Amino acid sequence: MLLLAALLLAASACGKETGTAAAQEEPFIDSLRLYAPGDYGSANWRIPALLCLDDGTLLAVNDKRKYNESDLPEDIDIVCRRSTDHGKTWSEPQTIALGTGYKHGYGDPALVQCANGDVLCFFVGGNGLWASTESDPQRSYVCRSTDRGQTWGEPEDITSMLWGSQALNTTCRNYKASFFASGNALRLKHGEHKGRVMVAAAMCRKSAQVLDNFVVYSDDNGHTWKVSDRAFSQGDEAKLMELNDGRILLSVRRSGARGYNVSADGGATWGTQGVWNEMTANACNGDMLRVNDTLILHSLPNSMQREKVSIFSSTDEGRTWHRPVPLFDGPSVYSSLTLLPDGTIGVYIEQNPSGACELWYYRFNLAWLLGQR
Predict the structure, then answer these.
(1) Which domains does the chain have, with CATH numbers?
(2) In the 3-class helix/strand/coil scheme, how is the chain assigned residue by residue?
(3) What is the mean pLDDT for each group of 10 consecutive residues in the chain (373 residues)?
């Protein structure tokens, strides 16, 4: 009953913040398939990133895995679709980065909107993660849109800043590869670092096939970059969340209990890493979303298999997580979350009931979430 009361309070707060009672209306959940295997001449689709911009425009960005479902160094494009009606209808796909062959593809997009309105898309390209070397690297890119995702500039290669012999953080000179966690990056909304853009990176050590997490951040809308101290040892794809007290929460992919850490200085340095035992799952990418001051959501498979993507909820700033609500009960993998202007929640999710991934857009209100609880 305490959780129910807290979520009802969250729903009420959400309605007040957005100027709508959508979060308190009759429960609903809608879904629409955006891509199926074979659509637009592509054998496969993977790696969703979903972001609602300041004017309500939705961007759905993902990998177009043209010939197979494998990761880089395969030939992969990154494509974007836009919606201006809460996801009821979508534009045709637009290419952000065009793959031109083996070791010349791109993948794993992450999105953020800067304080000046520009949209950044982070991704990697070239060689595969595990085979990467400084002479033949998996490269890290940032691509910018100045018109809310209608057009995109040329990708900017920032690889040498992140790892290798010229890395900004000297610790990262002991690493041989890096990739961004697909889905949502973060822009800080409050405090002394307001406007800071941040994205989590998983870097591969030179000494072993082991990943550690660092945070890449910018204080000038993504024109120059810095790299944090190590945020999580033996991590993987990670997501960031701004807490009410100004600290930054990092949620980290692991097999078993989900990892976390907290930064008290805007993401530059990090505390002692820990795990959430109540969020035990397959090693998989998920997403975090702040709905309001009371409620944070986290999407993740609620299984030790890649299935049952569910919505976990926290009403104590991520210290603990409540029993999740299933979003899709069958085989399902990555997911991305965003908050719409009317207080409803958008989800972009990989579902693979027949083997190959399909990409689906879901939209639900908090009344549906409460009803499932």
Answers:
(1) 2-372 (2.120.10.10)
(2) CHHHHHHHHHHHHHHHHHCCCHHHCCCCEEEEEEECCCHHHCCEEEEEEEEECCCCCEEEEEEEECCCCCCCCCCEEEEEEEECCCCCCCCCCEEEECCCCCCCCEEEEEEEECCCCCEEEEEEEECCCCCCCCCCCEEEEEEEECCCCCCCCCCEECHHHHCCCCCCCHHHHHEEEEEECCEECEECCCCCCCCCEEEEEEEEECCCCCEEEEEEEECCCCCCCEECCCCECCCCCEEEEECCCCCEEEEECCCEEEEEEEECCCCCCCCCCEEEEEEEECCCCCEEEECCCCCEEEEEECCCCCEEEEEEEECCCCCCCEEEEEEEEEEEEEEEEEECCCCCEEEEEEECCCCCCEEEEEEECHHHHHHHC
(3) 51 45 76 98 97 98 97 98 98 98 98 98 98 97 98 98 97 98 98 98 97 98 98 98 98 97 98 97 96 97 95 97 94 97 97 92 96 79
